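Let us practice reading a record.
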Amino acid sequence: QVQLVESGGGLVQPGGSRRLSCAASGSIFSIANMGWYRQAPGKQRELVATTIGGGGTNYADAVKGRFTIFRDGAKNSVWLQMDSLKPEDTAVYLCNAVGYTALSSPFDVWGQGTQVTVSS
């Protein structure tokens, strides 16, 4: 069983910065994709940023130039550095990982989410 633990959410002022962390644990053989999504009240879950196993990254247009995703493959961890935050970035941020367990079973798991609130 693979689990994700997120941290780093909280209240931040507009224009401020915040870093989110996500660590995967369990019977992991490999992680192909690992990244962040968000869900604001009354809205659908949307992609924020993801890393691809080959080293690529993908960002939502709304966060390009402001957010940066980092991944440490050896530690099965990913971070999201969020700068120049805006009130519209307020949401629950969820970590997602896709890969294979040590028994070669595929997994696609989500963390419980961490709240980020951007407000003065």
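A brief commentary: The chain has no helices and eleven strands.
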